[in-house]
Amino acid sequence: MIHLAIIPDGSRRWAKARGLPAWKGHEKAAENFRPLAEWCRENSVGVLTVWCFSTENWKRDTKEVSALMNILEKYLRNERDAFLKNDTRFVHSGRKDRIPRSLAAIIAETEEMTKDCKKFALHLAVDYGGRDEIIRAVRRMRASGATEESLRAHLDHPELPDIDLVFRTSGEMRFSNFFLWQGAYAEWVFTEKHFPDIAPEDLADCLAAYRKRRRRYGA
What we know:
Elements: E1 2-7, H1 11-17, H2 22-41, E2 45-54, H3 62-85, E3 88-93, H4 101-113, E4 120-128, H5 130-141, H6 148-153, E5 165-168, E6 187-190, H7 200-211
Parallel strand pairs: 1-2, 1-5, 2-4, 3-4, 5-6
Helix pairs in contact: 1-2, 2-3, 3-4
């Protein structure tokens, strides 16, 4: 089973090209997400990680940020019954202290109600940054001693396998502080398409490209 991570760039550019406000692009991206997650669940993806909001995204317009938080909350409220039906475990990485309380609450509730699901894991990164996660892990470690194993044990979700493949959309080709520890040996696939235009066929092409590669892990 593959751990696929998606950096879903291009929602604002998609909206701008259509003369729409930025939040409309995020809304379209959320609508687009369900068929992509369903495809992953049925096609050898054991964990799907999606970066919804970074620690740096707080610099954006406050109206856009507020709309995005509302979209995330609405998505979870609409989908959590389907998570249970489809044996999907939901997990969140990132900070919960800065996002709206209602969103933090629905995240915690959904994590708890799906904790025993086994078939598939949907892992959303909200108010997440790789450096921030490592700093938080070090603070949790304190006097336990710094080793690779002990630091990993204090990451947000040490039980999840390392990322195998990162798929980044909209022509961006940067690491951007994305799961620095878990993605250390990940393969990358890029596309020029904006995320709201991504279809399951694009994920199929992405995984096909990944399976042709030989992973050496530095050897």
